[in-house]
Amino acid sequence: QSVLTQPPSASGTPGQTVTISCSGTSSNIGSNYVYWYQQVPGTAPKLLIDRDNQRPSGVPDRFSGSKSGTSASLAISGLRSEDEAHYHCASWDDSLRFGVFGGGTKVTVL
Amino acid sequence: EVQLVESGGGLVKPGGSLRLSCAASGFNFRTYSMIWVRQAPGKGLEWVTSISSTSSHINYGNALKGRTTISRDNAKKSLYLQMNSLRVEDTAVYYCGRVAMSGWHPDYWGRGTLVTVSA
After folding, report:
1. Which residues contact B32 (CB under 8 A, 6 or more apart)?
2. One digit per residue, pLDDT tens: chain A, 110 residues?
3. N or C, fewer C-beta in 10 Å, chain A?
4. Mean pLDDT for chain B?
């Protein structure tokens, strides 16, 4: 079982907004940054959101991250077919003393 | 362009050993910490181990703890993962990652190499 909890799947039609949640504890999300990765099957994961809500260069502003307490969210607005992928959240855990990940959420564009 | 290419995966019997390699290019390898992360079939990502730029600091996660050694050769721009006493549950895609300067997390990943542990 992953330390961070994500829903296994999410879906939406083109143009809609999809939001993915990531739940943790005070030792990880509650006291450290959250990162989000996009993974298209068969390709390398890609850093999508850095330090809770920062988009690395080249990431469209349709992707946004937020955090409150021990939970974080990734929102994909204006959903497009190329957004079909798995999305993973990650954070440092002060108790475990290493990085922890969520189980991943598969986003389907209907 | 940052490139990370893993190799060395394959089929190994339970109890066997395997050494993975990661060839880096497109950045100053000797100034970055590096990380190994794995993903079992149908599961999430899992921290394996990380190593600082000078190999002075190594951090192991719970996966493969006590059965794995990370190392690097800055002259060859390469990262390694020696895995011993492999178990069926170690079957996974193993990814090499460059650790971002701003934290512990990977900012670039390779495509991974599949390790299958089966009799």
Report:
1. B53, B98, B99, B101
2. 899 999 999 999 999 999 999 999 999 999 999 999 999 988 889 999 999 999 999 999 999 999 999 999 999 999 999 999 999 999 999 999 999 999 999 999 99
3. N
4. 96
Partner residue opposite A44 with nearest CB, options B59, B62, B111: B111
What's the CA gap between A26 and B31, in Å, rounded? 32
Burial string for A88-109 (b: 16+ CB within 10 Å, else e) reads bbbbbbeeeebbbbbbbbbbeb
Which of A99, A94, A33 minimizes the C-alpha distance to B60? A99
Strands A9-12, A105-109: pairing is parallel
Q: What is the residue whose two structure tokens read 């969520």? A: A102
- Dihedrals phi, psi of B89, to nearest 5 degrees: -75, -5
Residues of chain A neighbouring B111 (CB-CB closer than 8 A): 42-44
What does the pLDDT look like over B57-104, one tens digit per residue?
Answer: 999 999 898 999 999 999 999 999 999 999 999 999 999 999 999 889
Nearest CA in chain A to B112: A44
What is the Cα Rg of chain B in Å? 13
Residue A96 and residue B62: Cβ atoms within 8 Å? yes
Q: Answer yes or no: do A44 and B109 touch at CB < 8 A.
A: yes
